[in-house]
Write a sequence for this structure.
């Protein structure tokens, strides 16, 4: 969410717009609830603002509804709570409280002038569970870094499998680690990202020297990370969109997901779905099939549609409609 806010703000300023940021990111479930429920209304500027835009649902609760936009990234706290992460997945009381708070906040956010959904899947969920007014809904894809492009891989390196995500229950990196550990593949598994489950996952790796934890990969090093891989694994249980898969496609990498993953169709159809990764890792012919059968050119074209300038220009169209009172 922080990266989205950074990129949108940067592009808005590049296009000549004045932007005031009011951050509500918290490093825990409790701090995020406090910041969105208590701190946000106290910090929200009230004068000289033409349009308010919340880049996450709960941040829209305190906005003046007639001149605001709420972005819905996902709705799986409502649709698939059993797959929830963000600190809720391991505790039924946190999950119950989180679901109630999100449902409450979503209903308030739905009163904004426009509701932006990042995928058709998210729009469908919002229509079913939050708001029936389709006229106020717009699907706008997020962007990816323009630096993400194919580069020559360093030759004679060990076969490299990688993943990048928030390290929490929803992302199911534990399944990837477990199924990699019992495989006999001569390869390296690199895990990028941070999150509250990192310590758990490191213990799960149990000293397997084939498994490396990279921590947070800076934006300017993402292209190097993706291009160092031979195969990108995206073991997530559910996504509102799934930008890491798109980023890997932009670097001409094949993407593998579990066959029970819940993803937007435009992502799902460009990935290879696997029931068990151990079977894949232990079978060079299956890996070769994935590498050869990937439609790299179509994936590159698709990834190229995810541009921050295009995303923000679509936002600006909505801002102008609000200013004009449409």
């Amino acid at each position: 969410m922080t990266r989205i806010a950074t990129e949108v703000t940067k592009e808005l300023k590049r296009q000549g717009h004045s932007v005031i940021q009011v951050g509500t990111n918290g490093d825990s479930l409790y701090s995020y609830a406090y910041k969105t429920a208590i701190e946000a209304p106290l910090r929200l500027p009230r004068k000289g603002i033409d349009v308010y835009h919340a880049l996450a649902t709960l941040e829209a609760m305190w906005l003046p509804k007639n001149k605001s936009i709420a972005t819905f990234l996902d709705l799986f706290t409502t649709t698939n709570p059993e797959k929830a992460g963000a600190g809720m997945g391991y505790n039924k009381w946190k999950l119950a409280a989180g679901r109630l708070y999100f449902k409450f906040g979503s209903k308030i956010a739905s009163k904004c002038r426009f509701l932006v959904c990042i995928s058709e899947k998210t729009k469908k969920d919002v229509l079913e569970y939050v708001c029936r007014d389709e006229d106020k809904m717009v699907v706008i894809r997020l962007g990816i870094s323009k630096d993400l492009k194919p580069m020559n891989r360093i030759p004679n390196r060990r076969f490299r499998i990688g993943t990048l995500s928030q390290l929490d229950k929803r992302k199911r990196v534990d399944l990837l680690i477990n199924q990699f550990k019992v495989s006999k593949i001569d390869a390296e598994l690199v895990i990028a990202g941070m999150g509250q489950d990192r310590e758990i996952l490191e213990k799960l790796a149990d000293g397997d020297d084939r498994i490396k934890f990279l921590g947070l990969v800076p934006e300017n090093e993402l292209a190097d990370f993706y291009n160092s891989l031979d195969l990108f694994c995206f073991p997530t249980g559910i996504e509102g969109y799934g930008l890491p898969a798109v980023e890997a496609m932009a670097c001409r990498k094949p993407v593998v997901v579990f066959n029970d993953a819940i993803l937007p169709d435009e992502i799902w159809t460009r990935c290879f779905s696997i029931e068990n990764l151990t079977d894949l890792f232990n079978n060079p012919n299956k890996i070769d099939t994935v590498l050869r059968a990937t439609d790299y050119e179509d994936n590159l074209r698709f990834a190229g549609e995810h541009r921050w300038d295009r995303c923000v220009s679509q936002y600006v169209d909505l801002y102008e409609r609000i200013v004009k009172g449409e």
Observations:
- The chain is about 40% helix and 15% strand.
- The CA atoms of residues 47 and 72 lie 26 Å apart.
